[in-house]
UniProtKB/TrEMBL annotation:
<dbReference type="InterPro" id="IPR058627">
    <property type="entry name" value="MdtA-like_C"/>
</dbReference>
<feature type="domain" description="CzcB-like barrel-sandwich hybrid">
    <location>
        <begin position="104"/>
        <end position="237"/>
    </location>
</feature>
<dbReference type="Pfam" id="PF25954">
    <property type="entry name" value="Beta-barrel_RND_2"/>
</dbReference>
<comment type="similarity">
    <text>Belongs to the membrane fusion protein (MFP) (TC 8.A.1) family.</text>
</comment>
<feature type="transmembrane region" description="Helical">
    <location>
        <begin position="29"/>
        <end position="47"/>
    </location>
</feature>
<dbReference type="GO" id="GO:1990281">
    <property type="term" value="C:efflux pump complex"/>
</dbReference>
<dbReference type="GO" id="GO:0015562">
    <property type="term" value="F:efflux transmembrane transporter activity"/>
</dbReference>
<feature type="domain" description="Multidrug resistance protein MdtA-like C-terminal permuted SH3">
    <location>
        <begin position="324"/>
        <end position="376"/>
    </location>
</feature>
<keyword id="KW-0175">Coiled coil</keyword>
<dbReference type="Pfam" id="PF25967">
    <property type="entry name" value="RND-MFP_C"/>
</dbReference>
<feature type="coiled-coil region">
    <location>
        <begin position="136"/>
        <end position="163"/>
    </location>
</feature>
<dbReference type="InterPro" id="IPR006143">
    <property type="entry name" value="RND_pump_MFP"/>
</dbReference>
<keyword id="KW-1133">Transmembrane helix</keyword>
<feature type="domain" description="CusB-like beta-barrel">
    <location>
        <begin position="245"/>
        <end position="315"/>
    </location>
</feature>
<keyword id="KW-0812">Transmembrane</keyword>
<dbReference type="InterPro" id="IPR058792">
    <property type="entry name" value="Beta-barrel_RND_2"/>
</dbReference>
<feature type="region of interest" description="Disordered">
    <location>
        <begin position="1"/>
        <end position="22"/>
    </location>
</feature>
Length: 396
């Protein structure tokens, strides 16, 4: 009996015995994938970049180029001033209000303008005195009459004294003439005193400067009627002295002392005027928690009372290293700097900061000024790291 063997190919076709199965479609795909993979590997091998040849003699030089180059400076020790900044208004240090001293009257002339320099006793404005001048003339005439009467009385007394020895006139007559002479002299003194008083009153009609100074304001014009007790007519800054009333915080005011030097810069000006603190307020404003330091200033055209200005007050000085702000770092452990030791390795150094100003940061402790301090890029360094330092000079 003959048996026929059948098989089923991958495509589900029935194959009889003795017939070789055709290659399957899956196999063809596998073969094609292998060929593509081999081609990709060959292309990568041929096109890959060739590694550069490393010269073993240059190995140390290659490692040396990886050492970072940084800027360092030796700060030394400088005098660092403690500067307190404040703002405030300008005013006359001693402002003198000037009004009518005498009886007053009609103003005939005003002789000064704001900004004028005046001397003590100089006439600022004149008041009409036509009536007072006539009164003074009348009193002067009375003085002349009294003097004439006194001269007559004196002559009669001398003649009587010559005749009394001859017996023509009694001693009683001499005594009466002596009394008449004395009364005449007294009337001269009264007349002269009355005239002097009138002339003094007339002089007080003129409005005069009580001291040398700078005229700040003028509030009178010719033709104006002025009288005693009237409002201020002129204001004068005695000797032209000015001051700045700097408002400072309570903590800053406690560090300011009388005599401390200061520089004041008015708003709108670039010129600083030097002065000194002449008074520190004993009172603190309970609302603003500020006090006033009064800075005496010499006369300057840039200083105008009522203007605004800023002040730099020197509250003290100390000798310490000073660094740029970029050299001082801070973290959870506090402030620190990086210094480069003799082996050109970076070392961390804890410091305590002093005054901070436009010139930099002063170091109160932690440095003696002879160290090589990293100026910048300290945040990218680590303690013990090898560096290539370049010494630079700190600009002050």
């Amino acid at each position: 009996m003959n048996y026929e063997t059948t098989t089923i190919d991958a495509d589900g076709r029935l194959l009889t015995d003795g017939t070789p199965p055709p290659p399957s479609r899956r196999r063809r795909w596998v073969i094609a994938g292998v060929v593509v993979l081999l081609g990709a590997l060959l292309a990568w091998y041929l096109l890959r970049p060739k590694p550069a040849e490393v010269d073993p003699l240059k190995g140390e030089g290659a490692r040396a180029t990886q050492v970072p180059s940084i800027s360092v400076a030796v700060p030394g020790r400088d005098t660092v001033r403690t500067i307190i900044s404040g703002t405030g208004s300008l005013a006359a240090r001693r402002e003198m209000p000037i009004g009518v001293v005498g009886e007053g009257g009609l103003v005939t002339r005003v002789l000064v303008e704001p900004g004028s320099w005046v001397r003590a006793g100089q006439v600022l404005a004149t008041v009409d005195r036509s009536v007072q001048a006539q009164t003074a003339e009348s009193l002067a005439a009375q003085v002349r009459v009294a003097r004439a009467d006194a001269e007559i009385a004196e002559s009669e007394l001398r003649r009587a004294q010559q005749l009394v020895d001859r017996g023509f006139i009694s001693k009683a007559d001499v005594e009466r003439r002596t009394a008449t002479r004395d009364a005449a002299r007294a009337r001269v003194a009264v007349a002269e005193a009355t005239l002097g008083e009138t002339r003094a009153r007339n002089r007080r009609l003129d409005i005069r400067a009580p001291a040398d100074g700078l005229v700040l304001t003028r509030a009178v014009e010719p033709g104006q009627i002025v009288g005693a007790g009237q409002a201020v007519l002129f204001r004068i800054a005695m000797n032209g002295q000015m001051e700045m009333r700097a408002q400072l915080a309570e903590s800053d005011l406690a560090r300011v002392r009388t005599g401390a030097p200061a520089e004041v810069t008015p708003v709108g000006s670039t010129t600083a005027v030097k002065g000194e603190v002449w008074q520190v307020s004993p009172v603190i404003d309970p609302q603003s928690r500020q006090g006033i330091a009064r800075i005496a200033l010499p006369y300057s055209e840039s200083l105008r009372p009522g203007g605004f200005a800023s002040a730099q007050i020197v509250a003290g000085a100390a000798v310490a290293p000073q660094l740029p702000e970029s050299a001082v770092l801070s973290d959870g452990q506090g402030n620190f700097v990086y210094v480069v030791d003799a082996k050109d390795q970076v070392q961390r150094r804890a410091v305590r900061i002093g005054e901070v100003s436009d010139g930099g940061v002063s170091i109160a402790s932690g440095l003696d000024g002879t160290e090589r301090v990293v100026l910048s890029a300290g945040g990218f360094l680590a303690p013990g790291q090898k560096v290539k330092p370049t010494l630079v000079k700190i600009e002050r």
